[in-house]
């Protein structure tokens, strides 16, 4: 295939100037990706490789795209979440960087599907996914493209859950690297980044005082742990709900109240869901909540809070009572406040992770994509694969170097002690 002309469906190309400034600003806080970009530009590991990407269209994502493009890739990009799309960033990618982009803020479901189709139109060799939408489309409507795929990367826990279910059912047809599952990314992206950006979205949307508030955190994985710690630092009284005994014990021994959602529902002033599952907060919980309870979801899909039930059963829905806040009036007069339509709040109600956080996540993504191509076609199994440990260590090393942090090294005596059973 010859290189195509740039194609696009974006809101307004006139926004490109502002988008370019936003991308450059983010790049200042992304030294890991810059170092990888410089190497890719010299070595061209993606020369002529067609990449389809379904990611959040943000300035940070734009710098990942620039990095892969510097390595020779031909990229087509669509949005994994319409509410997270920055229209100026999308325009800048088209105008300033010559990337084919299909993304509009608040696009409807029909347009969203058309954008997925446009991204897959060039028969990709690699796919970069954020919640498995490209993988799902490939395995349902584009099965003819599967033989030409070298592999893919998945950015989110929700997407990895889907992919592992596909693999368990023997339905997955190409190797996918679970980019979200590395020690460095779990620390920086999930525990630190999502916690900060979710609280940022909550404060932007409600301007409420968290000190003294009862905040219910549903799920005590990496994200829940980070949220609970930072909410406590702001003076909130944190309640945790969990289904896993080990995580519930961890939360209890960390000093948080642990109970069921039914027990927490009448107590909570704010509810934050971070489980990756569906119907975590549902009808029986809504019935117990206070007037003015705030509901927000930091998981990828808008299923953790039963938004459909709220829409069907509220006697009145008041849109945008504040930016990104809808009010659902119950039959008894209580008002439940939903942030960002129940979608991923930190992206829909704020700007997502700080660039310094995405520097780590996208660095791992870029090196994982390069690793997939280093393997001969067919050499890797059609399965969900872990990020090679060397990649995680390299990203941590690059980040520490950028922060001017130095480490101790083992002496020969110490190394001998650690590697000999008779020492």
TrEMBL record:
Residues 190-352 form the S-adenosyl-L-homocysteine hydrolase NAD binding domain. Pathway: Amino-acid biosynthesis; L-homocysteine biosynthesis; L-homocysteine from S-adenosyl-L-homocysteine: step 1/1. Keywords: Hydrolase, NAD, One-carbon metabolism. Coiled coil: none annotated. Pfam families: AdoHcyase (PF05221), AdoHcyase_NAD (PF00670). It catalyses: S-adenosyl-L-homocysteine + H2O = L-homocysteine + adenosine. InterPro entries: Adenosylhomocyst_ase-like_sf, Adenosylhomocysteinase-like, Ado_hCys_hydrolase_NAD-bd, NAD(P)-bd_dom_sf. Its EC number is 3.13.2.1. Its cofactor is NAD(+). Belongs to the adenosylhomocysteinase family. This is Adenosylhomocysteinase. It comes from Cryptosporangium minutisporangium. The lineage of its organism: Bacteria, Bacillati, Actinomycetota, Actinomycetes, Cryptosporangiales.
